[in-house]
Amino acid sequence: MGRRWVPILGQLATRTDSYVLxxxxxQRGALVLEQRTCRMDFAPVAGARFAFDRRALPNLPVARLxxxxxxxxxxxxxxxxxxxxxxADPEADGQPGARIDVTAPLCAGALQVASRAVSVAQGxxxxxxxxxxxxxxxxxQRILGASxxxxxxxxxxxxxxxxxxxxxxPVAATATCAGLLAxxxxxxAPETADQLRRLAPGEGPR
Length: 206
Known about the structure:
Shape: globular
Helix content: under 10%
Number of domains: 1
Structural class: mainly beta
Oligomer: single chain
Number of strands: 11
Largest sheet: 9 strands, antiparallel
Radius of gyration: 18 Å
Number of helices: 3
């Protein structure tokens, strides 16, 4: 959950759901993850919809993060960064940065963006081998281009603060994004702090 810039209307509350597939290396007191984004959903905001070009997702940068075991059973991930600049072209469409399609009643088109996301997280291991907890993300986006007179007139760089919950569950070593997306996703993150506490007693907002 956080706030997102919406054409004409400015900053409004929003929600982003990310579905990732991670390879895990287990070390003593640490979990080292390399994860790729399989799907990213932006909830509609005041009638406006945002969507990544699906061609871009397999080519977005890999996230590398390490959860370290701490006191009271908590696993904490130090800040990690996922970023791309104007030189990136994950859709291979010849345009700089990544494309975000905007559908809105008053202003629609496509944005080309550079992005830098800095994330921190903490959680608890589950008996199933999974991991659940809380995450906070700061996303800085730079507008590299926009289609349509309206978007070109109103689009601007932004900085968004997002916070919410995450959940990982074990899957087969041979699992792929395509295979997982073809069926019900194998895990759902908690929606509230109460749900998180029921899954992982002792965990809660800090």
